[in-house]
Amino acid sequence: MLDSLKGFGVTFHEMFRKVDTVQYPEGKRPPAPRFHGRHQLNRWPDGLEKCIGCELCAWACPADAIYVEGADNTEDGRYSPGERYGHVYQINYLRCILCGLCVEACPTRALTMTGEYELADDNRETLIWTKEQLLAPLEQGMEAPPHPMRLGSDEKDYYDLGSAGVVGRATGDAADDAGHAADDAGHAADHTGRAADDTGHAADDAASSRRDSGASQESGQGKQSGQGKQSGQGKQSGQGKQSGRGKQSGRGSMQREGAT
Ligand code: SF4
Ligand code: SF4
């Protein structure tokens, strides 16, 4: 009997509790400030695109969801400050896990994430978002590219503006910038640590080269230590990545067909 009353007590307690249901999609709750929603390709305050078509975001993506094709700016057709711009840019939201690694990899802060999470659709093709869909809208004072550089004579002038925080406020991503400033401080600390590591490795290398030269003097195998340096070419993983790029272009054609 007592147990039954206890059970009803729980039921009545829950019946009169304030309901926490959100009537989605009519009602929506704002996401957390650093929520990872869909991406946005940002612009400089004069409307030029920040993306330089470097593909670093595509390389950083663990889900193989980004496809980028860069192209050269010309004086008649300038889309970004500097030499290159992102000619084709696609994100496949069937693959994307919204992890944000691409944002971390972007050297120009061209790529950020918004709070938009409504990415469902009823066909696969429309979930491959194109550059036109991802580009930030033109704000007041911005001019649609292509047009000449308005904020300086070269790309360095633009990046100086960005590092001074001017661009973040102008494009409305000041909050993002604050977050990234914290990240950057973390990265700077990492770099300091790595620099210390490198110094240690340099000392190790010097010691081992002294040992190697001693050994070569003793055994006459000096050429062997030269081959040891050859193994340093293993670090030229860029060559390995180059071959990976072939795969990228294959992926791009798949995406254009909407097959992934
Ligand atoms: S958020 Fe993650 S999965 Fe999505 S495109 Fe960027 S790196 Fe790839
Ligand atoms: S979004 Fe950033 S990382 Fe990706 S291609 Fe453009 S500039 Fe490079």
| The first-level CATH class name of the domain at 31-150 | Alpha Beta
Q: What's the end-to-end separation, in Å?
A: 60 Å
Q: How does the major sheet shape up?
A: 3 strands, antiparallel
Low-confidence stretches: 169-204, 206-260
Helix count from the secondary structure assignment: 9
Bound molecules: iron/sulfur cluster
Shape: elongated
Q: What would you say the CATH architecture of the domain at 31-150 is? A: 2-Layer Sandwich
Give structural notes:
- This protein is mainly alpha-helical and 260 residues long.
- Among the domains are: 31-150, Alpha-Beta Plaits (2-Layer Sandwich), CATH 3.30.70; 168-213.
- The protein is 45% helix and 10% strand.
- It has helices at residues 2-15, 56-60, 101-105, 131-134, 155-163, 166-170, 174-219, 222-230, 237-256, and strands at residues 39-41, 66-72, 84-92, 111-113, 128-130.
- The strands form 2 sheets. It has a 3-stranded antiparallel beta sheet.
- The radius of gyration is 26 Å and the shape is elongated.
- The site of one iron/sulfur cluster (SF4) has 14 residues, from helix 2.
Could you write a compact summary of the structure shown?
The protein is mainly alpha-helical and 260 residues long. The chain is built from 9 helices and 5 strands; from the N terminus they run αβαββαββαααααα.
Q: What are its keywords?
A:
10% strand; 9 helices; Alpha-Beta Plaits; mainly alpha; disordered C terminus; 5 strands; 260 residues; binds iron/sulfur cluster
